[in-house]
């Protein structure tokens, strides 16, 4: 009787072993969003030190185009804003650093992405020396801190006019001049990282709603309330658009 029981147990064990399949490997979630910003002038790729004609019909060459991004968030399917806190980006066309990574992207279904050109007041007027040398807000890293006035330059645009070889310098700053974007685009985040392509149309800085004319409006601004600053800032509200957001 014991022998029969042992045989039955052995058969059951073999069936159990042969019938068991190993569990599939657990896939670790990658909670990042890789972002590339394509800088355009109208429909053409934008490059420094190339000649472009502004909407005012003034030919120019740009020698510097740099800016700061902050306040990133995602808009979920229920219209909730999910903040991606303490993530800042320094973009400078001189260094071609137009690709970067956002972290802590949760799984979900989304309807868009938001962010700002510029900084909130607390960060803008905080101590810049608190940041490590490679941090986007380190003055040594980005050369955008206005040490003589306090706060950061949010966008620096510099270059020369072609006809008379005059220099233009637009340093746009001031917490009240932060430009906020909320870009609609449907996408989902599962286990994989996601990849986004944004477009920045630099021509829009000089048109819509008002054409900016260097000869008439001015060659420079370093003042947060200057009419030059306000006109350019107002034009910047539609410079960004989403090309695509998808899983890698």
Give a summary of the structure in a few sentences.
With about 250 residues, this protein is of the alpha+beta class. The chain has helices at about 1-20, 120-125, 140, 215, 225-235, and strands at about 30-40, 45, 50-55, 60-75, 80-85, 90, 100-105, 110-115, 155-160, 165-175, 180-190, 195-200, 220, 240-245. The strands form two sheets. Strands 3, 4, 5, 6, 8, 9, 10, 11 and 13 form a nine-stranded mixed β-sheet that branches. Strands 1, 2, 7, 12 and 14 form a five-stranded mixed β-sheet that branches.
Q: If helices are DSSP runs of H or I spanning 4 or more residues, what is the number of helices?
A: 5
The total number of structural domains is 1
Assign a percent range to the helix content. Answer: 10-25%
Largest sheet: 9 strands, mixed
Unreliable stretches: 5-15
